Amino acid sequence: MAASRTYDAIIIGGGHNGLVTAAYLARAGKRVVVLEKRPRVGGAAVTEEIFPGFKFTMFSYVVSLLRPEIIRDLDLPRHGLHVLPLESTVTPMENGNYLAAWGDHDETRRELYRHSPRDAEAYDEYGRLMHFMAQAVKPILSMVPPDPTSFDPRDLFALLRLGKHFRGLGAERLHALIKLMTMSSADFLDEWFETDVLKATKSASGIIGTFLGPRSPGTVFRAWGFAKGGTGAVSESIASAARAFGAEIRCDAPVARVIVKGGRATGVALENGDEISAKVVVTGLDPRRSFLQLLEEQELPGDFVADIKRFKFRGSSGKVNLALDSLPSFTCMPGIGRQHRGALSISPSLEYVERAYDDAKYGEFSRNPYMDVIIPSMIDPGMAPPGKHVMSIFVQYAPYNLNGGWTDAKREAFGDAVVNTLSRYAPNLKSLILHRQVLTPSDIERITGLSEGNIFQGELALQQLFFLRPASRWAKYTTPIRGYWQCGSGTHPGGGIMGANGRLAALEIVKAT
Ligand SMILES: Cc1cc2nc3c(=O)[nH]c(=O)nc-3n(C[C@H](O)[C@H](O)[C@H](O)COP(=O)(O)OP(=O)(O)OC[C@H]3O[C@@H](n4cnc5c(N)ncnc54)[C@H](O)[C@@H]3O)c2cc1C
Predict the structure, then answer these.
(1) Quick check: CB of 283 below 6 Å from ligand 1?
(2) How far is the CA of 46 from the centre of ligand 1 (A)?
(3) Who contacts 183 (Cβ-Cβ below 8 Å, separation ≥6)?
(4) Cα(first)–Cα(last) distance of the chain, in Å?
(5) Alpha carbon distance 230, 314 (integer Å)
(6) Ligand 1 in reach of 455 Cβ (< 6 A)
(7) Ligand 1: which residue has its CA nearest to atom 6?
(8) Residue-wise DSSP of 351-416
């Protein structure tokens, strides 16, 4: 069937980044259509009622980096966005003790003092440094990466600005930033603290979504909140803003290929054979799908194809979603209390986390995995029927390339490993489980389209960041095909619910068209 309407822009994929691009383009007066293959928008940021009455923030579960300029520009609170604080992290230890970080600074300091007066003293200075590091990195999240090999005045000016920014940090902080970017989280944290469980819990945030352990370089990093309604509510709020600006959003509309004529993208063909044309086509899919699936290899330069084939995915995370009859009691902090309203980190020691990685290195899922657990229904009661609860368990490591491949039996064995491990810290957990959903990297790939189940549309490793994401010379949201743009997490500044990629892409498109 022939297309009935021509658009200024087609956005392939209604992930949160595709939706941000659509909203900004529509706001700029463009006629925009979003084509999403699934029955709902959001991609890896979706909320689904998997079991009647129980709503799961199925993949991603917490929000921290969503750019404030996007919240403002798109007036997201008016469209339903409401982020609730997730104040504490409790790490149960194997000896029955625990380490807790609470919303109250003085209380956290006292808690640390219980473990190590030296660490309690170091904690404030560490916190100040991390705050400063976050401030140092922030401008980079909102900039189009300049090409260091280019003589284009725009690139030279941006490089100069970047140089000035880093110089402005001062020697000491610049050195700390370089160490933070390049050292293993274990080595970096060794320089600050002596309490193993503290180092293990802090290191865990650096390994999420990577195929690296806490002793691997470049793993020091990343404060969280819970969106009312789950991360799907973030996507829905952006979709609502996009529609309010005039964008059209079509679900159940999988794109089969991008139509290229004379080296220029002119539209897309849907899997049902429909063709839709537009002045520009923007992909929110990961680089492998955007270039190696939606296009023919011969339509692209050989060196670019080689770069995209080299781009590393290596999904390493799984997710277990539980519907619970009531709340579990944790041995380290029995009964019901504020520990249920924050995160629970299963990271009792650095060695524990490194051993979890060891299993994955040799093609097995971790028998004793690192887990980041929250109970969304304790933060937003609307997530489960009265008195019942949902538990979200993010699990590391589950390698995409499991020995012998993922099967239904291995999925269940992985789910059992997760529940058994958590039951060591919450012995009544098993008896409370009403339903369980286990998602392997292979399931993540099948449902969301994220290649190899990589949660960030490609590893966030130093060699795949900034002007190298997804490939050198093509980190400014353009592609070798004229009129074909990219806006997903596979571009700078990478994955996570930030929307920065989608916004930067849209601003570049508006400038160019
Ligand atoms: C298990 C898991 C846990 C995570 N936890 C967190 C977390 O707690 N906090 C956080 O900030 N980040 C988290 N992340 C990462 C974050 O969710 C992603 O980086 C982000 O949502 C990616 O958004 P995106 O818009 O770039 O791409 P995607 O969400 O991948 O969107 C791409 C969209 O394209 C659609 N699509 C694919 N193929 C086609 C096609 N052929 N035609 C049309 N549409 C198509 C997909 O259905 C999808 O909607 C997690 C991810 C996973 C998987």
Answers:
(1) no
(2) 9
(3) 217, 218, 220
(4) 28
(5) 26
(6) yes
(7) 60
(8) HHHHHHHHHHHTT---SS-EEEEE-HHHH-GGGSSTT-EEEEEEEE---SS-TT---HHHHHHHHH
Question: Is 460 close to ligand 1, i.e. is its CB under 6 Å away?
Answer: no
d(CA 164, ligand 1 centre) in Å: 34
Distance from Cα 403 to the centre of ligand 1, integer Å: 26
Q: CB of 474 within 8 A of CB of 481? A: no
Pocket of ligand 1 contains residue 46 by CB under 6 Å = no
pLDDT along the chain (513 residues), means of 10: 72 98 98 98 98 97 93 98 92 96 91 96 90 86 92 92 90 87 90 95 78 60 79 98 98 98 97 97 98 97 98 96 98 96 95 95 97 97 98 97 98 98 98 98 98 96 93 96 98 96 98 95
Nearest CA to ligand 1 atom 1: 59
Whether the CB of 441 sits within 6 Å of ligand 1:
no
Which ligand 1 atom lies nearest to the CA of residue 254?
42
> What pLDDT is stored for residue 34 in this prediction?
98
CB 497 within 8 A of CB 60: yes
| Length of the chain in terms of residues written | 513
Does the pTM of the predicted model rise above 0.90? yes
CATH class entry, domain 6-84+229-312+455-512: alpha beta
Six-digit token string for 231: 């991360």
Residue 33 Cβ < 6 Å to ligand 1: no
Query: Which atom number of ligand 1 is nearest to the Cα of residue 498?
Result: 11
Give the Cα-Cα-Cα angle 58, 62, 66 (nearest 5 degrees): 115
In the sheet that 89-92 helps form, which strands lie side by side, from edge to edge?
Answer: 98-101, 89-92, 343-346, 370-374, 389-396, 317-324, 433-439
Distance CA 443, CA 267 (A): 30
Predicted pLDDT of residue 210: 66
Query: Taking the domains of the chain in order of start, what are their residue ranges?
Result: 6-84+229-312+455-512, 87-223+314-448
Q: How many Cβ atoms from other residues are within 10 Å of residue 339's Cβ?
A: 24
Query: What pLDDT does residue 275 have?
Result: 97
**Measured in angstroms, how far is the CA atom of residue 186 from the centroid of ligand 1?**
29
295 lines ligand 1 (CB under 6 A): no
As a whole number of angstroms, the distance between CA 15 and CA 12 comes to 9
- Out of 60, 235, 392, mutate this one to test ligand 1's pocket (max ligand atoms within 8 Å of CB): namely 60
